[in-house]
Amino acid sequence: HQMKHKLLPKEVTSFRINFEGIAWDKNTDKGPKTFNPKEFTVISIAETPTTYDLQCAGNVANTDLYKSVVLQKVGIEANTLNGILFNSGLQEVTVPQLLVSYYDQNKKLLWVNHHFLAQGIRQQRKQFFSFKLPDLTNLQILKNNTKNAFVNGLPNNALTDKIDIGTLQKNTTLDLFPISGNGFSYLKIELNNYIGAPN
Question: Whole-prediction pTM value?
Fold first, then answer.
């Protein structure tokens, strides 16, 4: 399962990839009769991996880049994040999604979660959201580098050194909310809006 987020040029976003096994790969396995969006197949690994290769591909899209939804009245109460999404544009958001990133006291990324709102957001209307914040006190970071990361087939470090896309000078920590969370000190909220019938 991969977090997908539509980006404008030079925009930076957080994402998470869950490493999952292949479901129903044996002849004796039977798939479910109904769709379960929370279904997850645990990956079977014989030995503990010592390294990894991460391949990321960027795809250009010219639709669904709807940026007319804004955050309002974001607050925390009893370990619950509450707020409002306001649609100031001219299209109805069919499926609103929040991408929430959690950072440590040094503003280093720890974890990413996503939350779908149960209802869409009509034009010039608002929608409330509320969800429990996670407990990351027992989170263990195994690797924290991009040595073996490749973007569109090119090594990440070589690509960064060769092409300045404007993100090197951008302060990516300006959008962080300071918070005294369980195992994290900052969070960031990003919006991903799916338009079912774009105008």
Answer: 0.78
